[in-house]
TrEMBL record:
One of its GO terms (molecular function) is transferase activity. It comes from the Bacteria. The keyword Cell wall biogenesis/degradation applies. Residues 242-420 form the L,D-TPase catalytic domain. This is L,D-transpeptidase family protein. The active site is at residues 377, 396.
């Protein structure tokens, strides 16, 4: 147990140093200014061990719970046990004395609350804003709200597809004792504001503008709730400075380099039954003259039924039937009828389309790591880009300006224009690793604010919930700091 305690203590100390290096240095040095750095670290480690012990001490927890219950109704708190531990560390002294920290938190938390992701968050928000400024009651409600917000932000990136796109999937929990201690130490050392600010994507201007619009309260409650939820979908994007960005319901791709728009193209995304997933990845390579290995869903639902009706179907499309050693199999030698319906899942071969002008992937493919085998690609069927509604593919993204995107990326990889043309004309499949860092953001936002204008899009995948009134008293909220 002692060894485990030392490990946990070291983790707390390392986390504090990593997250707040300036705080760690000044705090450790100033607590014991006449001692050597090593001795100071030993003293600090002992202090952390004592703090972690106190957070589990039944007598201390019971005493603090009694003080909390005298101040507020414990049933109104979401995270009573964690709140108790925090006030054990503070000796039941106020934690929210820094008004800048409080304002930074409340402005971001209010948008989170209005989004509807965390149940009863607006009730806690109203408790805060209707409590007397500086009161212990307000302090406790602020702490309870912050711990909800803390857990949400620590775990959001691993839960994007559920919390942000499926109703009633978020259930708040307490963060670890080490993380609670880290926050209280930051507050005690006047770093509470910076602690909160590190969870806010300050370089994402679209997020910032959308949040400001929500905080004005100058729209109907349903519109504010929609903007607030979409702000949460935006907050997981650090900025719009570098990378490829596709907002799925917009059918648009933007490629930014160093804050400058390098390319804009319309795109086709997955249809409702075969949706393009929300994912964040990074481009790995460009494939010039790509073949197409037909993925299982398309193979089972589309291609095998067509072969069953016409064994020569594949020849017209440039398809090859291959075993998993790469040997070519004659289509007429296969009893296609035995692979109808569910039996298609047992099909023992793969089908690949040769590269060329008629190939489904066109002349360019842009790969990225993806559990769903999603990528961007060219297409020979350019007419689809003139349609207004372009949720038409089987999940991958078709790019109208694929040739222009390829030229930019290959040039960044050091390829001359002459080399690009020669490779293209050869019709030989060529893989080119991308040297530069190119993140890819496939996201889904249906309402946002940009350059002062509110923008909305149709909810093509029906991922938005039925928004309800949030009942936030904005006139009181904006006077509560």
């Amino acid at each position: 147990m002692k060894r485990r305690s030392r490990i946990l203590t070291s983790l707390v100390l390392l986390t504090i140093v990593w997250v707040f290096p300036t705080y760690a240095v000044t705090h450790i040095v100033n607590v014991f200014p006449k001692l050597s750095l090593k001795t100071q670290q030993i003293h600090t480690q002992k202090r952390i061990e004592k703090s972690l012990w106190s957070m589990k001490n039944p007598q201390l927890l019971t005493a603090v719970e009694g003080q909390i219950r005298k101040t507020v109704s414990a049933q109104e708190l979401k995270l009573l046990n964690a709140v108790k531990k925090v006030y054990v560390l503070s000796n039941f002294s106020p934690l929210w004395l820094d008004k800048k920290m409080e304002q930074t938190f409340l402005e971001d938390y209010a948008v989170f609350a209005v989004s509807g992701i965390s149940r009863n968050a607006t009730r806690i928000l109203n408790k805060i804003t209707h409590s007397a400024i500086g009161s212990m009651e307000r302090d406790i409600f602020l702490t309870d709200a912050f711990l909800d917000y803390f857990y949400y932000n620590k775990n959001l990136k691993n839960n994007i597809n559920t919390w942000l796109y499926q109703s009633n999937t978020y259930n708040t929990k307490a963060v670890s004792d080490q993380e609670l201690l880290m926050w209280v130490e930051a507050v005690k050392s006047d770093y509470g504001d910076k602690f909160i600010a590190k969870y806010i994507p300050s370089e994402n201007n679209v997020y910032t503008e959308t949040v400001k619009k929500v905080l004005t309260g100058s729209a109907d409650n349903i519109s504010l709730a929609k903007l607030a939820l979409n702000a949460q979908r935006l907050r997981v994007i650090p900025n719009f400075n570098n990378g490829l960005y596709v907002n799925i319901p917009s059918y648009q791709l933007y490629y930014y380099k160093n804050g400058q728009l390098a390319l804009h193209s319309v795109v086709v995304v997955g249809r409702k039954k075969r949706q393009t997933p929300i994912l964040f990845s990074k481009l790995s390579d460009v494939v010039v003259n790509p073949p197409w290995t037909i993925p299982p869903t398309i193979l089972e639902e589309d291609v095998i039924p067509k072969y069953s009706k016409d064994p020569n179907y594949g020849a017209k499309k440039g398809f090859q039937v291959l075993d998993y050693r790469g040997n070519t199999i004659a289509p007429e030698s296969i009893d296609w009828a035995q692979y109808k319906g569910e039996a298609a899942k047992n099909f023992p071969y793969m089908i690949r389309q040769k590269p060329g002008k008629r190939a489904a992937l066109g002349r360019y493919k842009f790969n990225m790591p993806s559990a769903e085998a999603i990528f961007l690609h060219d297409t020979p069927y350019k007419g689809v880009f003139s349609r207004k509604k372009r949720a038409l593919s089987s999940g991958c993204i078709r790019v109208k300006k694929a040739a222009a995107l390829s030229q930019i990326l290959l040039s960044e990889a050091g390829w001359s224009v002459a080399k690009q043309k020669a490779t293209y004309n050869s019709e030989q499949t060529t893989f080119v690793k991308i040297r530069s860092d190119n993140p890819v953001y496939l996201y889904y936002v249906t309402a946002w604010v940009e350059n002062g204008q509110v923008h909305t899009l149709p909810d093509v995948y029906r991922l938005d919930p039925a928004f309800s009134s949030n009942n936030v008293d904005w006139s009181v909220f904006n006077k509560s700091f």
